[in-house]
Design a protein that fits this description.
4-stranded antiparallel sheet; alpha+beta; 4 strands; globular; about 30% helix
């Protein structure tokens, strides 16, 4: 089945969808120094899966404001909540999804998406850690 070109969230910088994991350092363990403060691989995996699940579940339930709240700060700067809600409402609707395993090196997670019409897509979620709260957030989808 050919790769679908729709259902890409959040809005990319410069109008193109692209992964945003380049250069993100993961500090693992209590001695880890880097942009990610979560300690331990297991914590990164759990929080990354939860952020991805919460984002896609909000899309399934058509709670676009809740999906927007799962986005990282830079994604929210690129697109207002109102524009995000309008855009995703106009795109094919997510009916189901399956979140894969978090790659703790690249902070990415594959998600298999099924749309209401039955079409399927595999998307790659790029995660980022909120520097204020420490929570993992969805930052890009390609």
């Amino acid at each position: 089945m050919p790769r679908l070109r729709h259902g890409r969230h959040p809005a990319p910088a410069g109008g193109r969808t692209r992964p945003g994991a380049g250069g993100v350092a993961v500090g693992l363990g209590s001695a880890g120094a880097g942009r990610v403060r979560i300690t331990g691989v297991q914590a990164v995996e759990e929080q990354g899966r939860r952020a991805s699940q919460d984002y896609y579940q909000a899309l399934v339930e058509r709670k676009y404001g809740a999906a927007y709240q799962q986005l990282c700060e830079s994604a929210q700067r690129r697109e207002s909540r109102r524009d995000f809600e309008r855009r995703v409402a106009d795109e094919p609707q997510v009916a189901d999804y399956r979140v894969g395993e978090v790659d703790t090196t690249t902070l990415t997670v594959p998600v298999d998406v099924t749309y209401t019409g039955g079409d399927r897509d595999r998307q790659q979620v790029t995660l980022e850690q909120d520097q204020q709260t420490g929570a993992m957030e969805v930052c890009a989808i390609s």
